[in-house]
Amino acid sequence: MPDDALGLPYSVPARREPVLPNGVLGMLIFVATEIMFFSGLISAFVIGKSNAIGGWPPPGQPRLPVEETALNTAALLASGVALYFANRAFKRGDAKTKRLLLISIVLGGFFVVFQGAEWVALIGEGLTVTSGQLGGFFYLLVGTHALHVVAGFIILLYTYRKLLHDDLDRFTFWPAQVFWYFVVGVWPILYWQVYL
Amino acid sequence: MRLARVALAAAVVAVTWAADLAYACPSCASPLEENRQAFVDTTVFLTIVPLMMIGGFIWWLRRKIREMDGAPEIHP
User: Fold this and answer.
1) Superfamily, domain A22-195
2) What is the secondary structure of chain B as a DSSP string?
């Protein structure tokens, strides 16, 4: 029996639009834990590097490809910029969203493929996880980031698929962006610490 | 009660005083100056990062809530 049939005062409490959608809040909390995870890894690396006897990088170890990775870094940063503009276009309901999101995905894919090729070359030169401190830290730090890039790449592909089916809303797109911006933002710090 | 407080304060002072002798990790006792500095730097870094994240989020949230104070209400 409805409440008002009893003659009781009936009112629905007014609500406001939430400050943050649940998906975004969840992703932000996840990214915060990831930031602490990477901070721990970077701190361990900095201490390990400072403890190395004979300087860093250790003598007799292959040199990391600084210039080539700078290009790859630029590609990843460009991917983040493309995603930012894709979001702006999405808010306007602009048809450019598809193209910009695709550019972001392609650049992210380029980063993964390029890094895979870099790893193959480094393993060929003798840099492995067990070859020394440099190899151990390199594959741990860069490998962990690479896993995140692959995860972000899959999330972006999912959002693109939803966009193609006109099924993408901001509650899906926004958390995906938060994750990708994290992946893009943490890389220059890793590049600076590990490669330079 | 007062004696317990004094004892607690004395214990805190004693622990703080003796902390530099604890050498809880190999880095603290490292003969390399660069290594000791790296340990200090990363400790500061790992202390500041979570505080900045939480502080930044609270600041942003407060600002956003103030902005939304005048926003229209939604009736379900």
Assistant:
1) Cytochrome c oxidase, subunit III, four-helix bundle (1.20.120.80)
2) -HHHHHHHHHHHHHHHHHHHHH--SGGGG-S-HHHHHHHHHHHHHHHHHHHHHHHHHHHHHHHHHHHHTTSPPB--
